Amino acid sequence: MSYCGPKHVSDYSVAAVQDFVQKNPPAAFPVTQQAAVQAQTASGALYLAGSLQGSNVQVRTLVPLSRAPRSEAPSGYSIRVLNEQGSWFEFNLQLLQLDHPTDRAEQHFSVELPQMNIQRFEIWQNGVLVATQDNSDLVAGSTGQKQQKQQQQQLSQSQFQLDESANQLCVSWPAGKDASLSVIYQQNGEDTVLALNETTGQFCRDSSALPPGGDWRLIWRQQLSVREFRQPR
Description:
Elements: H1 11-21, H2 31-41, E1 45-53, E2 56-65, E3 77-83, E4 88-92, E5 94-95, E6 106-114, E7 118-125, E8 128-134, H3 141-154, E9 161-165, E10 168-172, E11 179-187, E12 190-198, E13 202-206, E14 215-222, E15 225-232
Antiparallel strand pairs: 1-2, 1-6, 3-4, 3-7, 5-6, 7-8, 9-10, 10-13, 11-12, 11-14, 14-15
C-alpha cells in the first residue's frame, strides 16, 4: 500500500509513551483526595499530557490506561477537573524535562486521572489560575457542538478496519477535524503503543516484534472526548 511507509516519531513522543505504559504500582492518593476518587480509580486511569505557554494550554495526548492512576509529588502546579456529572477533582501536575531544545516559555506537563468524561479543566500555579480548557468551548457554536456529538454517536467498531500482514498492521479509520487515533497492543495486561495521536485516515505500523495473540486497543479522541474500541488480534 502506498501509505505504508515509515513515519518519524519524535523523542518527546517516545519518552512520553514509555512513561505512561510502564507498569508501576500506583502510589496512594492524599487522604483528602482518596475518598473522592476511590470509586473511579477501580476503572483505570486516564493519561493526559500537553503543553502550557502563558494562558494557552494544548492537550497533546489523552489515553486510557489499563491500571489505576499514579499520583505525583507537588510541583507548584495542579489541575482541577470537572467531569460530566458536575464533580470537581484536583491533582498535582508533573512538569516534564525534555531532552531537546524547546521554547523556554513553553512547559510540558502530564498527569494521571481516574477515568472520567472531562467537561472542563483548570491549571493552577501556587493558588493562581493560569489556564483553562472547556470541552464545549472547543467547538464553535451550537451547530458545531451538535455535529461533534453526532459524529461521536455514529462511531462504531466496524468503522475501524485493521489488516495485519507481512509484519505490518495497517489501519483505516474515519479521520475527521480535530480527531486522532492511538493504537495499542495489549497482552496479559501489558500495553505496547504502535501509534500515538495519528491523524491520517490510513497508516501502517511495524508489528514484527509483537508476540502472538493479544488484543488491539483503538483509542479515538476529539478534543477532550475519548472513546475506546477493542478488537482481538
